Amino acid sequence: MSKLFKVFVYGTLKSGQPNHHWFSKDGGYYKFLFNATTLIKYPLIIASQYNIPFLLYSPGHGKNVKGEVYEVDETVLANLDILEDHPNWYERQLEDVYYDNDENKKDKVWVYFIKKFKSELLEKDTFECYDSKGAHGLKYVERYQRSAGDNYKNEIR
């Protein structure tokens, strides 16, 4: 059996969101463990012309972010790294999260952050919880719907 990892997801990888299917690519193992909230506040923003949720690495700013924790094997973690372009775009690091049903219980999990970003992004509205079809009205634009060769990353870095 391969090594197992705990991963916290807060955006399009959550259950019912547009990229959740990445967990089941290539037959890897994944299992939902629990809903969680970050111990530290971070800015969860929606940005770019494609309305992508980004968790900016700016500890103490923003909100305690709610998400889901999954147990994954090496195959699934490698696929998530591909989706997030780790370590070139998002950077994955270990962070503490609280179990939503027990604030006295916490766990150390992998979280994907944007660490290099334009400072003006810190002025955007921040969210505690993300849903592509949320009241914010900023529906996520899936990759197959985007213009070929368009580099939205210039809007972030």
Number of helices: 1
Structural class: mainly beta
Percent of residues in helices comes to under 10%
Specify Rg, calculated over alpha carbons.
15 Å
Mean pLDDT reading: 94
Could you please describe the fold and organization of this structure?
The chain has 1 helix and 7 strands. The chain has one helix at 74-84, and strands at 4-9, 30-38, 44-47, 52-55, 66-73, 90-99, 102-114. It is mainly beta and 157 residues long. Strands 1-5-2-6-7 form a 5-stranded antiparallel beta sheet. The mean pLDDT is 94.
Task: Supply database-style keywords.
single chain, 157 residues, mainly beta, 5-stranded antiparallel sheet, two-stranded antiparallel ribbon, 7% helix, globular
Summarize the structure.
The protein is mainly beta and 157 residues long. 7% of the residues lie in helices and 34% in strands.
Secondary structure layout:
Layout: E1 4-9, E2 30-38, E3 44-47, E4 52-55, E5 66-73, H1 74-84, E6 90-99, E7 102-114
Antiparallel strand pairs: 1-5, 2-5, 2-6, 3-4, 6-7
